[in-house]
Amino acid sequence: MDDQSLLALLRENPERGLSALMERYLPLVAALVRGRLDGVCPRADMEECVSDVFSQLYLQRNDIDLSRGTIKAYLCAIARNKSADVRRAAGRYDPLPDGWDVPEEDSDAETLLLRRERRQAVVQAVLRLDNTDREIIVRKYFFRQPSAAVAKEMGMTVSAVDTRTHRALKKLRAILGEETL
Question: Across residues 71-78, what is the average pLDDT?
Fold first, then answer.
């Protein structure tokens, strides 16, 4: 079934059209959403995002102009946008930079000592940051709060928190004299 026929079916008989649409494009949309959200949110949220993609296409079925793109392109664009919405809502936190992690129990004594020294150096470097940057870094990397939560609690925008985080990490690199954290 070509896009024109699929769109006509979706408009004339929404139940059959949506069923045909999902039969054809569900694996693609699910793969796109999973690729963007894996590790960010629970599986149930990914499944809900996939459903939202098809729901949005269904709701916009009368506005789709196939001269501007294929149904596949519309679905991919919707999946990209819905996934971004879920990522923002999840308030995805960044993983701890290398060396900030808690050592495993089976590490040898030398490794434990090196990690402890590194952690102390990082803490001392964080203490040298200004109050706002220090609070953001502590909240994000030590308490693992997502940017959205940090922004809300500090009365900032998520973008401002992310920008300050990026700049604070650059300052920490300079303080620690390293290429990467």
Answer: 91
